[in-house]
Write a structure and sequence with these properties.
162 residues; Ferritin; two-stranded antiparallel ribbon; 6 helices
Length: 162
């Protein structure tokens, strides 16, 4: 049974994912003393803010199509609904507690890697559901950047865990 999603809602969640990710990276950078790690986390916070702006621009463009819906097959619809339910991503009320007091630089990096992988999963589902007319190239670019974040975070985790 097809599931209809309002693209504004789907893109609003993408904006929220990036906002929370940016706050996570900025807070983590402020808590850690390792200068290399702080620099990386500050850079990631800036990139997440840019991703948020990209999704907001796409959302604004699609907002000019008020009756637009994403019609997904049952599997894709259930997948996006599960991710959007809040079970995967921290919500507004949780994001401060979610960061908490990191036990170590490795702890921050492991949390960051989980969120990056979860956002890749969400954006992959979003990308698969987007009609070509909506310009999915922007989502493709963000997916590539998020994959790059995983590579950088993994390398940094290897460095600090040595």
């Amino acid at each position: 049974m097809p599931t209809a999603f309002n693209p504004d809602e789907v893109l609003a969640l993408a904006c929220e994912i990036e906002r929370v990710g940016g706050r996570f990276y900025a807070r983590a950078a402020a808590l850690l003393t390792d200068p290399e790690l702080r620099k990386l986390l500050e850079k990631l916070a800036r990139w997440e803010a840019e991703h948020q702006r990209t999704f907001a621009a796409l959302r604004a463009r699609l907002g000019q199509e008020p009756d637009a819906l994403l019609d997904l097959d049952d599997t894709a619809g259930q997948y996006l609904r599960a991710l959007a339910s809040g079970a995967v991503f921290p919500t507004e009320d949780e994001d401060g507690r979610w960061l908490g007091a990191p036990r170590s630089a490795a702890d921050v990096l492991q949390r960051a890697l989980r969120v990056e992988r979860d956002s890749i999963a969400y954006y992959t589902g979003l990308r698969a559901a987007m009609p070509a007319a909506w310009g999915p190239a922007a989502v493709d670019d963000i997916l590539r950047e998020e994959m790059g974040h995983v590579i950088m975070l993994s390398a940094e985790l290897h460095r600090v865990d040595g």
